[in-house]
């Protein structure tokens, strides 16, 4: 490949300069022919004498030979499908784009003809190549960047250059890293503010769940005080309770009197809890600040007067 042979030739010239200093053209040509390897030697043997008579001629012939093996259409297809990976630094992505752009031959060739000052005048031709790879790298950078919000910002910019695009992306990446570091710190959260009614908040109204079934079963077992939970009379068995077949006028269920209806009491208790919660800020009482949650400390209740 052309990019590989050019890099190898540059390394060879640096090595010759470091080891031998300023040497003759014949010695440079001998070094190139010796160190290029078996494949390169086969290419050199197939060149004409005028292509390998000097170091510069041989260098140019080798570069053109390997450049002709590049399929520009394939290389540009690879270039146009390059995208930044998640977490990949923008400098690394731009380096990949530059490396691939060298293989794509993003150049514009221009031919200029003019008449020289000879007598008679002779037409001369000059061919110029303008490298426009910077524009293609800028466009691929905008299209292939991972962050869609940053892409939208770049598309709104007028007269966007590759340098300004890289600067904007770096600024966004730096800001995102700062925000990420802030969120990685140990959070301290306050769950809620409510009235502090004891050592813990486990029995607050927010955790209260009323029973769904209001008749029969364990709901109306005889309380430990000796009072029947169905009729309100002295303690006795369920079969002897006068309210065993009575219909409650509160919940319309069978098995207890209205005065002992727990559905009514649960409803009133729930309403009282809701009213108490809504008036927390108006009551001159201690305010419960919830639990301060931290990964390294135990939960503690905090109050303020």
Quick overview of this protein structure:
The protein is α+β, with helices and mostly antiparallel strands. 43% of the residues lie in helices and 11% in strands. Mean pLDDT is 76; it is low at 195-223 and 280-305.
Low-confidence residue ranges: 195-223, 280-305
The Cα radius of gyration reads 44 Å
How far do the termini sit from each other? 79 Å
How many helices?
A: 10
Sheet with the most strands, sense and barrel status: 4 strands, antiparallel
Shape: rod-shaped
Number of strands: 6
β content, as a range? 5-15%
Mean pLDDT: 76
- Supply the helix-strand structural class: alpha+beta
Secondary-structure element order, as H and E? HHHHHHEEHHHEEHEE
User: Helix proportion of residues, in percent?
Assistant: 40-55%
Properties at a glance:
305 residues; alpha+beta; four-stranded antiparallel sheet; two-stranded antiparallel sheet; 11% strand; rod-shaped; disordered C terminus
Care to describe what's here?
The protein has helices at residues 2-20, 25-35, 38-45, 55-67, 72-80, 90-102, 133-144, 148-155, 162-183, 262-278; strands at residues 107-115, 123-131, 189-190, 194-195, 287-293, 301-304. The chain is an alpha+beta fold and 305 residues long. Strands 3, 4, 5 and 6 form a 4-stranded antiparallel sheet that branches. Strands 1-2 form a two-stranded antiparallel ribbon. The chain is rod-shaped. It starts with a helix and ends with a strand.
């Amino acid at each position: 490949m052309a990019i590989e042979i050019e890099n190898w030739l540059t390394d060879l010239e640096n090595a010759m300069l470091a080891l031998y200093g300023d040497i003759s053209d014949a010695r440079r040509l001998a070094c190139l022919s010796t160190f290029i390897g078996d494949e390169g030697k086969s290419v050199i043997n197939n060149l004409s004498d005028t292509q390998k008579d000097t170091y510069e001629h041989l260098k140019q012939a080798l570069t053109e030979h390997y450049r002709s093996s590049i399929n520009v259409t394939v290389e540009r297809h690879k270039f146009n499908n390059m995208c930044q990976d998640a977490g990949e630094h923008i400098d690394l992505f731009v380096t990949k784009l530059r490396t691939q752009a060298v293989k794509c031959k993003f150049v514009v060739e221009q031919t200029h003809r003019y008449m020289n000052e000879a007598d008679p005048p002779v037409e001369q031709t000059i061919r110029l190549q303008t490298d426009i790879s910077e524009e293609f790298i800028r466009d691929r950078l905008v299209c292939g960047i991972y962050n869609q919000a940053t892409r939208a910002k770049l598309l709104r910019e007028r007269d966007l250059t590759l340098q300004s695009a890289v600067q904007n992306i770096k600024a966004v990446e730096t800001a995102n890293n700062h925000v990420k570091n802030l969120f990685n710190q140990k959070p301290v959260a306050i769950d809620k503010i409510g009235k502090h009614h004891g050592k813990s908040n486990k029995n607050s109204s927010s955790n209260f769940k009323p029973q769904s079934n209001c008749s029969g079963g364990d709901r109306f077992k005889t309380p430990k005080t000796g009072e029947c939970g169905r009729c309100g009379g002295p303690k006795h068995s369920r079969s002897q309770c006068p309210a065993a077949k009575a219909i409650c006028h509160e919940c319309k269920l069978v098995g207890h009197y209205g005065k002992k209806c727990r559905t009514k009491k649960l409803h009133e208790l729930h309403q009282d809890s809701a009213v108490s919660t809504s008036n927390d800020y108006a009551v001159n009482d201690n305010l419960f600040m919830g639990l301060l949650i931290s990964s390294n400390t135990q939960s503690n209740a905090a109050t303020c007067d």
